[in-house]
Amino acid sequence: MTQQADTGRDTIAEVSSLGLRYGKTVALRDISLALPAGKMLGLIGPDGVGKSSLLALLAGSRVIQEGEVHVLGGDMRDAAHRRRVCSRIAYMPQGLGKNLYPTLSVFENLDFFGRLFGHDLAEREKRIDALLAATGMSPFRDRPVAKLSGGMKQKLGLCCALIHDPDFLILDEPTTGVDPLSRRQFWELIEKIRADRPGMSVIVSTAYMEEAARFDWLVAMNDGRVLDTGTPAELLQRTGTGTLDEAFIVLLPEDDRRGYEKVSIPPLQGAHDKIAIEAEDLTKLFGDFTAVDSVSFRIRKGEIFGFLGSNGCGKTTTMKMLTGLLEPSNGKAQLFGHEVDARDMATRRRVGFMSQSFSLYTELTVRQNLILHARLFGIDEEEIPGRVEDMVTRFDLAADIDSLPSALPLGIRQRLSLAVALIHGPEILILDEPTSGVDPVARDGFWKLLGELSRRDGVTIFVSTHFMNEAELCDRISLMHAGDVLVSDSAEAIKASKNAETLEEAFIAYLEEAIGTPEEETPPPAPEPAPQPGRRRFPDGAQSTFSLRRLYSFFRLESLQLRRDPIRLFTALIGSVLLMFVNGYGVSMDVEDLTFAALDRDKTSMSRDYIQDIAGSRYFIEQPPLESHAEMDARMRAGELGLALEIPPGFARRVARGETVEIGAWIDGGNPLTANTVSGYVQGMHADWLQRKAREAYGDAAIAGNFELVTRFRYNPDLQSIIAIVPAVIPLLLLMIPAILAALSVVREKELGSIINLYVTPATRFEFLLGKQLAYVALAFVNFLLMTFMALTIFGVPFTGSFAALTLSAILYVIATTAIGLFISVFISSQITALFATAMLTMIPGVQYSGLIDPVSALSGAGRIVGEIYPTSWFITVARGTFSKGLGFEDLSQAMTMIALAIPVVLGLATLLLRKQAR
Amino acid sequence: MNIRNIFRLGIKELRGLVRDPIMVFLIVYSFSHLIYTSATSVPDALANAAISIVDEDQSHLSSRITSAFYPPYFVAPNVISIDEMDTRMDAGMDTFALDIPPDFERDVLAGRVPAIQFNIDATRTTQAFTGSGYIQQIVTSEVSEFVAHYRSAPSLQVDLAMRARYNPSLDPSWFGAINSVIQSITILSLVLTGAALIREKEHGTVEHLLVMPVSATEIMLSKIWSMGLVVFAGSAFALVVVIQQFLDVPILGSLPLFLAGSALMIFAMTSMGIFLATVAGSMPRFGLLLMLVLLPIQMLSGGMTPRESMPQLVQDIMLFVPNTHYILLSQGILFRGAGFDVVWPQFLALTVIGMTLFWFALGRFRAFLR
C-alpha cells in the first residue's frame, strides 16, 4: 500500500523495511515510506501503534534496529550525517513539555536551547523576543514552565523547536489535551511559519482526526504497520466514508474491526426532576490560583453529563470535589440532595469513580482487583463471587481474569477500571477522561457500555473528555475553560446558539467570548529570523565537536535546576556537613565517663587508695558504693554500672604480709567494644598502682625492666579519635555525595525524558557530562571548604601541612568523584537505583580498600589493586598528610598525580559509554 | 474506623510485596545472610596490621623480636632502613614501626636498659591503641624470655581477676548480630512503608482508595500493620533461627518481652517511614532523605559506639529517636537478662515516641493526599 515517491528532492525522508522492538514488544513492523518534502504531513492512529517510535527514528533520537532511514539526503545510521543535519531538524517529543525543564522560566528554557545551537547573546535575545512575540507568550517570559497551562507549554515547546530555523519540523502529538482555541492558534502559528519558510517540511502525529483532515498528506498507522497513505481526500474516497474517524476504522484489518458498530445512545426518557448531582458556586483555590471558579450545574438522575475542556481547565478538580477528594474552598456540592462530606461513607458507596490514568493495583490480578474493591465497599462476602462474575461477563474480561493489569492492552485496562468502578452497583459514575489514548474501536465499545448503563440501569454518568465526538454523545455538556463553566446545554443547543456547524467551532466561539477577542496578534507576521543572504545560518561552532557555549549551557541548566529543588540543594550543600558532624561524634572511640561502683569489704586506707585511683581518673565516674553481691547483680542488670570492683576482706593486711590477694573486677560485657576498653583502662591503672606501691616499698631500682620501649604516638600524641577520623571522613563524604548527585543529574534526565535534548541537538556527550559535572564540582568544593572549616573550628583538629596542597588535591579529587558518579549513571535508568547503586559502588571500595583502617599496603588480592588506583586512597593520604603529618606538595606529589590521572580515565569512559541516541 | 478494611488493605500490601522480587530479596537477605555475615566478620580489633622494623642490632634477640610478628594479627614485617621509616609513615604505608638500636642485645644482657623506639601512626586510632598494647606485650615477653634466667624482680602479689559479665569471652559477634538486627529493623521499617506509600501516590491508586468508603487512618494503619508484620516476622526469625541457632548466642532474658519491645519499635519506625515519605513526595527524594536520616540515627543511637562518649547535647537529642531506647532495651533484655521491672522506662519511651510519630504522620498523610 506504500506509495513510492521519487527519491531525491521531492522527499524529505525515506524509510525502508524499518522494524523496531522494545524487548518482546514489537513497535514497528517492516515499514517503508517516502515522505514528500515541503508539506504538512500527518501521522494518525491510536496510542501505542508506533507513531512516536517512527518520529523518534526520523529525528535520530533512537537507534535504528532494522531497516533504513534517510533524512535530508543522508543515512541516519551515520553519526557524522546526524551531526550535520541535527541543526536542520527540530523534534518536539510527545507529552506536554517533555523536553522542557519545569523549574526553569520560559526565557531560561529558550535561552538554553539557543546556546545549544551556538547563538550568541544578542542573537538569542533577538530570536527569543521574536518567537515569544509571534506566539503571544511575551507576557509569560519569566514564568516557570511548571506553572504554564497546557496550551502555553505547547507553544513554548514549539518556540524551542523553532529557535534554530529547522528545515524539518517533527511534532509528536503537539496538541493532545489542549483546548480547541489554543489548538487552532497553534495550527495558525504553524501555517504562518510555513508561509514564511516555504521550504520547511512538517510531520505531525495526532489523535484528533478533525485536525488531521487539514493536513496535506497522511499516514494511517495501526499495530506497528502503515495502513494507508495519501491526502485526506484520497483516504476518504478510497474507503468511501465521510470522516477520517470512519475511514480509519474501515482501514483496520478485519479482526480488529469485528463487533464494531457505530455508537448511538437513545435520548433520555422519563423522570426529569430527580437531581442526582448538584453543584452550587463550587470554587477551589490553590494558594492564589483559582482552579475552579464558582461552577454550578445540576445533573438529573440517569443523565450522561459531559465536561469538555482542555487539560488543567478545572475538570479534574471539580470531579475531585464531587467525590470528596478535595474540599471546596467555597460553594457546595450535593449528591442525592446530601452535601458531599469526605467522612460520609454511606454516600461513597453510591458513587463509582474512574480516574484519569489507569490507577488500579498493577501488582494484583484482574480478579484480585475486583474482589478487593468489592470488599472495600463492604459487599457481603457471599455476594462477591456473583458480582465479580457479572462484571467479568459484562465487560468481557473472562480471558484475562488471572492476568496482571500491566500485561494487558490499554483498551482492556480501561474496561477493567470501569468494572471496578461499577462493582458495588453505584448510582452515580464519575469518569475522568476515561478514553484518552484508546483506539477508536475500543472507544466506541466503551461508550456503548456507558449508554447501556445510563439507559438500561439508570446510572447517572458524569464524564470528562477533550474529544468533541465523545462530548456529542452526552445528553448535556458543560464547556469549561480556566476554572469557569462557559455554557451547559445539549450539544445541539450549544451549536445552535453560536450558529456553528461543529461543536468545536461553537466551543471556540465561546472561548473567544470568554477571553475577549482572539489574543492580540502582536506585531504582524513576526520578525521571524529569516536567514539573510550572505550570512551563515549557523554560527561558528554549531557543528564543531566542542563548544564552550554548549558546555556552559548545560552547566547553567544544572545550576538553575538545582537551585530550585530544595531537597537536592539541601543534600548538596548541607548533607556532607551534617554527616560529618554525625561521623565526628558517632565514630568516636574515646570511652569516657564510664560508671563504676566498688564493694569495699576491707575499708582500710589501702583499699580506699586503690578505689580512689580509679575514681580519680577521667575515664570513670564513681557511683554510690555497693553493699552486697545481690545489689551488684541488680545494678549491673539494670545497666547502671559499667564496672564493679570487689576488694576482699583483709586486703591491706594480707598485702603487707606478702600474701597473694585477688581483687575482683566485673565488666558489663553487653557492648564488647566498651568492655575491652574498660578492661584496658582497669588493667593499666592496676599496673600503675602496683608500680607505685612497689616503688614505695622497695625503691626505684626494683621496678626497672630489661629495656625501655619508647612509644611515640606520632601525628596525634593524645590518640584523639577526632583527629584521626575527621581527615578520613572528608574524603569519604566528598566521594559519596557528589557522586550520587552527579549520577542523579544524568539519570533524572533519562527518567523525565529531557535527555532527548542531548540526542537531537548538536550537543556532544562530553559537553553534556562536563557541563553537568562542573556544577557539582563547584558545590563539592564549597562543601570541602565548609568541612575543612568545621574540622578546624568545631572539632579543633590541628592543621600542620600545606593548605594549598590539600585544596588543589581536593579540587582534583571532586572532579574525579563526580566523574565516577557520571560513569555509574551511564548504566542506570531509574533515579532510585542510581541513588543506591552509586552509594554502594562508591562507599564499599571507599571504606574497605582505601586505607581508612588498614594501609593499602597491608591488603592483598583484588582489594589491593582497587586500593592502589582508587582516588579515595590517595586523597586520604593527602588529607591525613596535610592535616596531621605536616606534609606539603613535595611529599604528596605521587598521590596528587594519581588522583589527577583518574579524571581523564573515568570521564573518558563515561563519555564513550553514554549513548547519543535512545536504544 | 473499619477493622476489616484495615485488614484487607494490609493483605493487598502483602500481595503487592510478594510481587516485588527485589524487595523480597532485600528482606530475606537483611534478616538472614546479612546478620550472619556481619556477626561473624566483625574483625578482631587487630588484623593484618602493617608493621615495619628497623633492625640496627642484627643480633639474635633482634631477629627473635622480628619473627614474633606474624599473620593474622600482623602482616609479615617489612625490614627497612632508618631513612625509609619516616617517609613510609608519612605516606601512610605503615601503622607501626620499631627501631631496634645498635648493640641492643648486649646492652640488655648487661642490664643497661636500652631503649627501643616505637613509632605509631596515631591517625589510625583504633589500631594504634590496641596495637600498641599488643606490640608492647610481644616485645616485652620476647625480651623477658630471652633474659629470663638472668634476673628476677620482686613485686606485690595483688592479682586483678577480671571477669566480663553477660559475654564472658567478650565475643564481638554477639553484639554485632543484635546490632545488625536492629539496623535491619530500622532500614526496612522505613523503606517498606515509605516505598509502599510513594508507590501508591505515584500510581494514582491512593486517590482511588479515597473515593471508596475508606478513611486515611485506615489506609495508614493498613500499611503499618502489614509492613510492620513483615519486619516483625523477619526480626523474630533472625533472633530465633539465625542468632540462637546458627550463631549460638545465648539469650539471657525473656524472648517474648523482647519481641513486645520490637513490636513497639517497629510501630514507631513505620510511622516515621510514612512521615518521611510524605515529606519527600517522590522516590528519588525519599532516597536522598533516607540517606540523611538513616546514618545519623544509626551512628548516634548507641549501637555503634557508646552513648557516653558523645556530647551531652547529641545524647539528649537522640532521646527523641526510637532506636536509642530500643538499643538500651535490647541490650538489657537479651544480654543482661533484665525483666520488665528494669526496662519499663524504655517501653514507655517507645510507646510515647511511637504514638507521637503516628499522629504526626497521620496529620501529614492527610495533607499529602490532598
Any overview of this molecule?
The complex is a heterodimer of chains A (919) and B (370). Residues 1-8 and 518-542 of chain A have low confidence and may be disordered. Chain A is an alpha/beta fold. Chain A contains 33 helices and 25 strands. Chain A has four domains: 1-88 and 170-176 and 199-252, 3-Layer(aba) Sandwich (Rossmann fold); 279-514, P-loop containing nucleotide triphosphate hydrolases (Rossmann fold); 548-584 and 720-913, no CATH class; 594-703, abc type-2 transporter like domain (abc type-2 transporter like fold), CATH 3.40.1710. Helix content of chain A is 47%, strand content 17%. Chain A has a six-stranded mixed β-sheet with strand order 6-7-8-3-9-10, sandwiched between helices. With 370 residues, chain B is α/β, with parallel strands linked by helices. Chain B folds into two domains: 3-42 and 167-369, no CATH class; 51-147, abc type-2 transporter like domain (abc type-2 transporter like fold), CATH 3.40.1710.10. Chain B is built from 15 helices and five strands. Chain B has helices spanning 3-18, 21-31, 33-40, 60-66, 82-90, 104-109, 125-147, 172-202, 205-210, 216-246, 255-280, 283-300, 312-318, 322-336, 340-369; strands at residues 51-55, 78-80, 96-100, 115-121, 158-165. In chain B, strands 2-1-3-4 form a four-stranded mixed β-sheet, with helices on both faces. The longest helix of chain B is centred in the middle third of the chain and has 31 residues, at 172-202. The two termini of chain B are 20 Å apart. The chains are: A alpha/beta (919), B alpha/beta (370).
Main attributes of the structure:
heterodimer; A: 919 residues; alpha/beta; Rossmann fold; 4 domains; six-stranded mixed beta sheet; 47% helix; disordered N terminus; B: 370 residues; abc type-2 transporter like fold; 5 strands; ABC transporter permease (chain B)
Strand fraction of chain A: 15-25%
User: Domains counted in the coordinates of chain A: how many?
Assistant: 4
Task: Name the CATH homologous superfamily of the largest domain in chain A.
Answer: P-loop containing nucleotide triphosphate hydrolases
Radius of gyration of chain B: 28 Å
Q: Note poorly predicted spans of chain A.
A: 1-8, 518-542
Q: What proportion of the residues of chain B form beta strands (DSSP E)?
A: 5-15%
* Tally of individual helices of chain B: 15
**Major sheet of chain B:** 4 strands, mixed
How many strands of chain A?
Answer: 25
- What is the second-level CATH architecture of the largest domain in chain A? 3-Layer(aba) Sandwich
Q: Mean of residue pLDDT of chain A?
A: 85
Number-wise, the strands of chain B total: 5
Question: Whole-Å distance between the termini of chain A?
Answer: 29 Å
| Largest beta-sheet details of chain A | 6 strands, mixed
The percent of residues in helical segments of chain B reads 55-70%
Treating each run of at least 4 consecutive H or I residues as one helix, how many helices of chain A?
33
Shape of chain B: elongated
Membrane topology (chain A): Multi-pass membrane protein
GO molecular function, one term (chain A): ATP binding
Biased composition (Pro residues) (chain A): 523-532
GO cellular component, one term (chain A): membrane
